[in-house]
């Protein structure tokens, strides 16, 4: 690993022992890009090789920061750019409690983060302009999202209802539209 990656690992380890790192308070200098990538399936790569140690991935994820469409690993003293193919996390499962407007959906990511969909953790669906294929996301933390995996999305659709001209789901007292009702067969 480069000296930059080593110092980021140390910053992440130190931050983890004190709880959630206060990334909002850190304003380090940009130090360039690191050869690190997060693929659409949630696999993290360093210099073209998958990072196999989940604890190391979790450490990096703890200092992941997003500004606009750009992603960074951020410590108190440096900020390095990384590439994210789609979303940095994948929602691999969810639990549903209640029904209708009282329903609560609790998503879990590939790294063990939990997000209860609602006003603070909205669900959004982007449809491909050419194919109409949906890409569903849930906000996990800060402004970092998880792509909802296919099996979970199909389960989500099974819970869907029509409301205000949209087909979607309720969670945390809020309705999240998936597709306009008129677009359904």
Automatic annotation (TrEMBL):
Domain DUF1285: 21-87, 88-177
Pfam families: DUF1285_C, DUF1285_N
The protein's name in its UniProt record: Proteophosphoglycan
Upper taxonomic lineage: Bacteria, Pseudomonadati, Pseudomonadota, Alphaproteobacteria, Rhodobacterales
